[in-house]
Amino acid sequence: MPKITIPAFSFRLVVVGLMAVSVGLPMAIISLSKALVLLFVVGIAFCLFRERSPLAPLTATATPAAIAIALVAMALSVSWSEAPVAQAWGAWAKHAKLLLIPLLLLLIRSEREARIALLCFVAAQTALLLGSWLLWAGVPVPWATSNRALVEYAVFSSRLDQPIMSGVTAAICWHLRQFAPGRWGRTAAVAVMVMALVNVIFVMNGRTGHLVAIALISLALMWELPKPYRVFAGAMPVLVLLAVWLGSATVRERMDAAVQELDSYTKIGSTDSSSGERLNYWRRSVESILQHPVAGAGVGSWNSEYQRLDQGRGPLNAQNVRNPHQEFLLWGVEAGMIGLALLCNVLLAVWRDTRRMTVPAVRAAQSVLAALVVACMFNSSLFDATIGDFFCVVLALVLAFGWHARAPSATALREATA
């Protein structure tokens, strides 16, 4: 009887595709996809080591090592964390979603596979966009599970997460449009980009999503400028912000509300608003960092630090909040300036890896990185569920595509980083 072999390649690509599709879907599907990735990568790693196959994307890129160092340091901080041990390790597990990046880099082994994964990702995000538009039009969407789907037009997540996802999807579709398959692939990619940006700016009311969209539009316009005119790139975000503010009543209302909330917090210390809560969290976080400047108060300690410093003066619903809605401050509280440096090192490592890619891949990857940095300024976007998984998976996909499609010539490198 002939020996039957199971094509590991097919299963591997299915796992990668499922992970790419799952981000933005309900958390149960994301968790299942992560479990499959972890289980499958153990088997793949065993086979690679047994066959002595090189782990090129892991050993020749800076991002995996930077992530490993950061997570090891966070794990060590459990020993001095002010949080209970179980809570500290639970917080570490949230940070550990960063491991999705090297795991997916290990699983994706060719440019073709990266393209397929990106296509799966864009298809799933397009379905989310269509669901959002249907909700806005008043058409019932039975599969929408968001508690405020009929008001915020987010299908599975929230007004905070979905517009960020749609903005990132728009950037990927624009910068990688030439790689879209089929006769009408390029046109379809541009159409998805337009549909996503219009949805973010005119339909969704998440302020972080608006800022991400403005940043990504500014980058795209800057890259389209002739090189002699790129000296004016610094003015691009201001011009785009002004255009969006004048053109979108949704953006205008949300930005005006933010100014009022900031004014209220500044004058009377009001925390009865989204901006007021954040500012109060940030203030207490800075106080904690100043008291533990080097190594922080330990992973998982943010809430206990907040409660100690705030002493009940902030909103009551902050009793169960586990992060300050700002990624950099979270790492600073948990691991001090060392932690902040480690997080910046991860972001810098991603940027360094993007510089070795071809022009479209550079722009796509750096757009995702820029969106992540903007989102982290106003939320704990790597620590949080859903949006953290989203960013880790998308970064892995664009890094894998860029790695396998890279051009080794010095001319291509100069064009990519110009």
Q: What would you note in describing this structure?
A:
The protein has 418 residues and is mainly alpha-helical. It has one domain (8-417). 70% of the residues lie in helices and 0% in strands. Helix 2 (27-51) packs across helix 6 and helix 17 (359-378) packs parallel to helix 19. The chain is globular, with a radius of gyration of 22 Å. The relative contact order is 0.13. Mean pLDDT is 85; it is low at 1-8 and 407-418.
Radius of gyration: 22 Å
Shape: globular
Instruction: Report the span from N to C terminus.
Output: 60 Å
The main β sheet shows up as: none
Number of helices: 19
Query: What is the total number of structural domains?
Result: 1
Helix content: 55-70%
Tell me which oligomeric state these chains represent.
single chain
Mean pLDDT across residues: 85
Q: Which structural class is indicated by helix and strand composition?
A: mainly alpha
How many strand elements? 0
Low-confidence stretches: 1-8, 407-418
